[in-house]
Amino acid sequence: xxxxxxxxxxxxxxxxxxxxxxxxxxxxxxxxxxxxxxxxxxxxxxxxxxxxxxxxxxxxxxxxxxxxxxxxxxxxxxxxxxxxxxxxxxxxxxxxxxxxxxxxxxxxxxxxxxxxxxxxxxxxxxxxxxxxxxxxxxxxxxxxxxxxxxxxxxxxxxxxxxxxxxxxxxxxxxxxxxxxxxxxx
Length: 185
Description:
Elements: H1 15-23, E1 28-29, H2 30-41, H3 49-61, E2 65-72, E3 75-82, H4 84-95, H5 107-118, H6 123-143, H7 151-184
Antiparallel strand pairs: 1-3, 2-3
């Protein structure tokens, strides 16, 4: 039996984008990044310290951030800053709708968090792009041909997915109006 194919997220919210977003707010060492994530992103997302440091290493190796050793209060630390390429990648990600409906809970909210800090005027266009992407997903699901067998289960899955999309669209519409009012002042 085949059920409606739905775009699934290939990986959890990438730690790398959180690091890029935090470094866009200014240079920081690893422990500062960890504290900021725990303090400000905790309602959305959590990260293991080992994953954070692995992300820092990967980002530095790929040229998206640059680290410099620094002595502060007698302690050696590596302070990281965003490179121009890292900034370009961050903004590309911030403006792109999330790849799957379930990514709204973490990745989309993280994007809103970073846009609030870096460019609140970018929130309404992101919300509009997300609304368009979800409407397209709903159209895809409605166009799918039902299977010959297990029709009732197929309908159950389809209706559940469409219900999730409808709820997300209502939330995005309401949230978009609120942010548009705030941005206009």
